[in-house]
Design brief:
This protein is α/β, with parallel strands linked by helices. It has 7 helices and 7 strands. The longest helix is centred in the first third of the chain and has 18 residues.
């Protein structure tokens, strides 16, 4: 868990694009050298648990309902969703190197039809038609950005609300905020 200064978390380089470009550059090199997909944030078992929950607990049409993974990184959540039979998948990340790794991982898993694109969720032009928005760590990274994280969190919340269909599902995994804090952050939406 990240330290706090009042209501906010302590800023960190983990909240910057430069950090993630560096991390994904290393992971790209590792993938080319060893076939390693890189870090699976919060662990592979947690990813499978969340995906199984999505597949079994939510009322979704696996063929047509659109799912977006915000901050998809290496795309392993998208790989797991595809393995569960979901067909209308999109991954976005603001790191070009993360997107490059995601494309390689998706191709390596024979999933070239998963849509993947570079997109900063804070300045996005995404469509307004996702039944599921999934985030595993992006809100956390935004929360520790060194430059005005509170304003960035508010912009994130507005944009998530904008792309999510009415009656849709927002699934967020966080290691920095408690459930109560997250409910308070998202209370107006």
């Amino acid at each position: 868990m990240t330290e706090r200064t009042g209501e906010e978390l302590t800023s960190s380089e983990l909240g910057t694009l430069e950090f993630w470009e560096y991390v994904y550059a290393q992971e790209l090199d590792n993938f080319h050298d060893h076939g390693d997909v890189g870090e699976i944030w919060f662990g592979a078992a947690n990813t499978r648990k969340v995906v199984r929950w999505i597949a079994t607990k939510l009322d979704l049409n696996k063929e047509s309902d659109k799912i977006i993974d915000v901050g998809c990184g290496n795309a392993m959540t998208l790989v797991e969703l595809a393995r569960e039979g979901f067909a209308n998948l999109t991954g976005v990340d603001y790191s070009q190197k993360g997107i490059d790794l995601a494309r390689i991982v998706l191709n390596d898993n024979n999933l070239p039809n998963v849509k993947i694109e570079i997109c900063d969720i804070l300045n996005n032009t995404l469509p307004h038609d996702f039944k599921v928005v999934h985030d595993k760590g992006t809100y956390d990274a935004i929360s520790i950005n060194p430059e005005d994280p509170m304003a960035k969190r508010q912009k994130y919340i507005e944009n998530i609300y904008r792309i999510l269909l009415p009656g849709g599902y927002f699934i967020l995994t966080s290691c920095n905020w408690t459930k109560e804090e997250l409910l308070k952050h998202f209370a107006n939406r």
